[in-house]
Each structure stands twice: as C-alpha cells, then as structure tokens.
Amino acid sequence: MSRLILAGALLALSLPALAGSFAGTSAGASSAGSSASSGSTSGDDKVVLQAREDAASFVASNGRIRGAQLEAALRHLREHDPQAREASDMQLAQAILAR
User: Which spans does this entry mark as compositional bias, Low complexity (predicted)?
Assistant: First the structure.
C-alpha cells in the first residue's frame, strides 16, 4: 500500500515537468522560463483551478466527459497563451491536473 502511495506521489511530482509551460500560470509563460504576462491575475488562476475536477473527469474518460468549467479553462488558456492554442484538449487537461 505504501509503495502505491509513493508511486502516486512520484508521478504527481513528475507531471508538471511533462505538462509544458502553457499551464505554468493561467496567462502562460515562455519555455525559457520568463514570468507570466501582466494579464495574469488571481481571477485567471481561479478559472483554471476550478476546472480541476472537470479536467480529471475528462482525462479519466479519455475525453468523453467535458464539463463547463473545463471548457471555460481551455478557452481561457488559449486566449492568453499562444502555446496553449497549439495543445490538444487532453494535453491542457493534463496540465491543469499537474498544477
């Protein structure tokens, strides 16, 4: 049981590196590691953070379950980050979960 928990914790720690920079902040950051754009606010982060449950359902259902909060977060990410515009819905949902 403890090995399963340890494996889950290690996976959770490695996902942010795999998720890409487009979900590093809700307004995005460049892959060079620059800070978020001036358009980032706590309200922006809230939109993305509120979509975590929907993102989990989306990933678990292999894209068949699409909640309203996930749709809002996907739209928000794509409006504020050029890298997110090129990412698939699944990649963005996984990145939301890795936050």
Answer: 24-42
